Amino acid sequence: MIDAVSLRRFPLFRDFAELDIAGLVETVTTREYDRHQFIVRQDDPGETFFILVEGSVSVCRIAQDARETILAILKEGDFFGEMAMFDSSLRSASIKTLTRVKVGAIRQGDFLVMLDRNPQIGRALVIALSERLRAANDLIAATTTQDIRARLATLLLHLGEEYGEQVGNGTRIALRLTNQEMANMIGTTRETVNRTLKRFWDEKLVDMQTAHVVITDSDRLRALAP
């Protein structure tokens, strides 16, 4: 069960009155998923709004030939499934776990009641969605105008900002992505990512001695991704 204290950590619910938070607790159900599982699938009916309590997920689209494109990564405090709440549309993308994940699920009817009682949540949704759109536009621009080295450098720097932990030799990216997942984010192949990462390692831009990539020279990476 997700308690009131946990819900207060979400920007969407930070300004809720105590009574409204208590009511929300009663409507949220908890679900847990292992790594690399689908929470929702593209083109499925959408009847649930999700808040991300623990872990990280990818927002992805899967083509008819099974190729996967990762549009965004969401982490603790984020939400997804909001579009279908307003028009009962089919899911526009799939949500796939990158780590072990815990989510809170809110049914469409409960979500709309919550929105009626707390209209301020609409503003928070618009702000969050605008930020996502801006990030998606930046990603599209990068993948269409930059070469592979620049795309991968841009991605690593972004991951370092969002998931970075300072260690002795640089910034450790706490979120573990496979080379295929990175390739799906920057529009290339797993083999190309593998080859380019090895070159970055040879050039002492990153360290890959452990399961987590460590950015060892962020200034030189930035020079690759103007």
Portion in helices: 40-55%
Q: Going across the biggest sheet, name each strand in turn.
A: 1-8-3-6
On the 0 to 100 scale, the average pLDDT is 90
CATH class of the largest domain equals Mainly Beta
CATH architecture of the largest domain: Sandwich
- Work out the count of structural domains: 2
- What CATH calls the topology of the largest domain is Jelly Rolls
Structure in words:
With 226 residues, the chain is of the alpha+beta class. It has nine helices and twelve strands. The chain has helices spanning 4-8, 18-27, 83-87, 108-117, 120-145, 148-163, 179-186, 190-202, 218-224, and strands spanning 29-33, 38-40, 48-54, 57-62, 68-74, 79-80, 94-97, 101-107, 164-167, 170-173, 206-207, 214-215. A hairpin with a 6-residue loop joins strand 11 and strand 12 (214-215). Helix 7 (179-186) crosses helix 8 (190-202).
Q: How is the topology of this model organized?
A:
Elements: H1 4-8, H2 18-27, E1 29-33, E2 38-40, E3 48-54, E4 57-62, E5 68-74, E6 79-80, H3 83-87, E7 94-97, E8 101-107, H4 108-117, H5 120-145, H6 148-163, E9 164-167, E10 170-173, H7 179-186, H8 190-202, E11 206-207, E12 214-215, H9 218-224
Helix pairs in contact: 6-9, 7-8
